[in-house]
Write a structure and sequence with these properties.
This protein has helices at 10-21, 33-41, 54-57, 77-96, 133-151, 172-177, 190-202, 219-230, 240-244, 251-257, 266-271, 280-283, 285-292, and strands at residues 2-6, 25-30, 45-48, 65-68, 104-110, 121-122, 155-161, 163-165, 180-181, 184-185, 187-189, 208-211, 217-218, 237-238, 262-263. With 297 residues, the protein is α/β, with parallel strands linked by helices. The chain has a domain at 2-165 and 187-213 and 263-277: Rossmann fold (3-Layer(aba) Sandwich). The relative contact order is 0.13.
Length: 297
């Protein structure tokens, strides 16, 4: 299988590695020279293109599957719409209109589209209720991927990532230094985030998959466990209201802070996906060992 990974960055490079090991061919797509260099340095074919530019997307060779993993770079809702909705639609139209269109189209979304559920469980069947402008854009992008991708003759899948972590993204000091605000953490290691996308391409025939590990955990419990494992004092804690009373958060940040849910991976497990890092305990071990050796940066 030939796969094009649009936005071949943190997860995309790992996806290319896993697909290549599995005997598939990949082409990584980025819009910046530095991004292209990173793909080439990792040993994969690269094409410089912008998802918002149909002409540049036309330079990507025909493939059997497209993975849309482009990022808006952490910018606001307008930038998110430009990439996740307009860019996604451009990619669907460009690839879907080819003489040999891809069979599959995977869009990587976020569990942020669920909004607040008061700490209750959510899964693939839970109705979306985004609470910020950006997550509203992500929910709209999911509709574009599923409806317009299907109309273009491709088999679409949405993979919703929980909080990504892994090499260069452990963020230990955020939890070790404190104060830690209450709430739930839903996480997935980069290896498994890429693994779920690979699984969607090669093994599963699903419209939507939740990419989250086995054990959502309260932030307070996680911070205490992490401190104990690292051999340091447990951090201070604060409630949501105490954090809000500090008065320095933007409106979107306040809305995110008020959202609480636990994401279930039951469907993924039932389909047979095997996690490399089933929980944060396994996933954070390299960072903990590095910290205890005094090498963590």
């Amino acid at each position: 299988m030939d796969v094009a990974v649009l936005g071949c960055g943190y997860v995309g490079l790992e996806l290319c590695r896993q697909l290549t090991v599995g005997g598939h061919d990949t082409v990584g797509v980025r819009r910046s020279p530095d991004g292209i260099d990173a793909i080439l340095e990792a040993g994969f074919e690269a094409v410089r293109a912008d998802v918002t530019d149909a002409d540049s997307l036309a330079t990507i060779p025909d493939v059997d599957a497209v993975v849309f993993a482009a990022s808006s770079g952490g910018r606001g809702a307008d930038a998110a719409r430009e990439v996740y909705v307009d860019g996604l639609r451009t990619a669907v139209e460009q690839f879907g209109s080819r003489e040999n269109p891809p069979d599959q189209f995977v869009y990587t979304s976020s569990t942020g589209v669920y909004g607040d559920h008061g700490g209750d469980w959510v899964d693939e069947e839970t109705a979306l209720d985004p609470t910020t402008e950006k997550t509203t854009v992500l929910a709209e992008a999911e509709r574009v991927a599923l409806e317009e991708g299907s109309a273009a003759g491709m088999d679409p899948t949405v993979v919703r990532f929980a909080g990504l972590y892994g090499p260069d993204r452990y963020r230990l000091t955020r939890y070790l230094d404190g104060p830690v605000t209450e709430g739930y953490l839903n996480m997935v290691h980069r290896t498994d985030a890429a693994g779920v996308v690979r699984f969607a391409l090669t093994d599963a025939d699903e419209d939507v998959l939740l990419a989250v590990d086995d054990e959502p955990v309260s932030k307070w419990a996680f911070a205490d466990w992490l401190a104990d494992e690292c051999g340091v004092s447990r951090p201070d804690k604060q409630t949501v209201e105490e954090r809000l009373d500090e008065g320095d958060l933007s409106t979107p940040a306040e809305r995110r802070l008020r959202t609480s849910k636990r994401c279930s991976n039951d469907r993924l497990r039932e389909l047979g996906y095997g996690f490399s890092y089933p929980t944060y305990r396994e996933g954070y071990r390299p960072a903990i060992e590095s910290f205890r050796r005094g090498e963590y940066k």
